[in-house]
Amino acid sequence: MSNQNIFKVGLVQMTSGTDVAENIAAAEKRVREAADAGADFVLTPEMTTLLELDSKKEKGKIKSEDEDTSWRHFASLAAELKIWLMIGSVPIKVGEKSANRCYLFAPTDEKVVSYDKIHMFDVDIPGDKSYRESNAYQAGEQAVLADLPWGKVGLSICYDVRFPYLYRMLAQAGAEILTVPAAFTYITGKAHWHTLLRARAIENGCFVFAPAQVGDHQDGRKTFGHSLVIDPWGNILADAGDTPGVVLADIDMSLVGQARNQIASLTHDKNIAIQTLT
After folding, report:
1. Is residue 129 annotated as part of the catalytic site, yes or no?
2. Domain interval for residue 227
3. Is 33 a catalytic residue?
4. Residue tagged active-site, from 8, 52, 102, 117
5. Which of 198, 168, 161, 166 is nearest to 183 (CA)?
């Protein structure tokens, strides 16, 4: 159904575990399901290929980009299915640490861009666990914007969503779609997921595509799910709920221009000095 302005997006919602091969097979099954349903652009969640809280076990399963075969597998899958495919993230070894790396593949099997998660999830959640992503992962240093046939997409991953300036920069650089693959914890997701994603859509006049991990994982964590497609006015077009699967939505890119014409806030930013009273 795709043309210059209209296409179908498919979000894959997964419960990734500690076995890389099993996760790749599960992701491929869902990607094929989305493509069979007519999706032109399919996205999977953060840590599609591995969710492992035990850092020692995790380290033994992570390979360098040259050695890792999963991203090449997904590149070939994109070409076979003739879709644009975003793998929300794959852990990739970089020196002594790893990168939480997102990949975008074209229908030609080309790796268009990759993006390393910038903001590390170092938090203590009451009633849950302590997370120290920076112990094992190296933060990315560069925002990434890529061209799709229907417009420009700005990439991000999970915890990035709490830093509005990243999305503002991407939108002002031309992004019309913002992608937020995630593995949000159940507690923080229940409290903030919908609100944060709707805010990023509204304040930037962008579509937001946010594929998510869901449920009880082998490593003991619990994720929130509710993969979302949100339009530039903040309307939720699709919500995958709390089970693994695929959710689809028809996207009309003309809505970006409509939202930005109604509220042109992207052109109204000001540099404001802060007065400190002592």
Report:
1. no
2. 6-264
3. no
4. 117
5. 161
Q: How many domains does the chain have?
A: 1
Residues sharing a CB contact under 8 Å with residue 130, sequence separation 6 or more, in sequence order: 123, 124
Q: Is 1 a member of any domain?
A: no
Phi then psi for residue 221, to 5 deg, are -85, 160
Other beta carbons within 10 Å of 67: 9
Q: Is residue 240 part of a domain?
A: yes
- Smallest CA-to-CA distance from 257 within 186, 206, 195, 218 is with 206
Is 63 noted as a catalytic residue in this protein?
no
**47 assigned to some structural domain:** yes
Domain with residue 120: its CATH number is: 3.60.110.10
Q: Which of 8, 46, 133, 206 is catalytic?
A: 46
182 within domain boundaries: yes
Per-residue pLDDT reduced to its tens digit, 101-150: 999 999 999 999 999 999 999 888 777 777 889 999 999 999 999 999 99
Distance CA 232, CA 136 (A): 35
140 vs 54, higher pLDDT: 140
CA dist., res. 204 & res. 178, Å (int):
9
pTM of the entire structure? 0.96
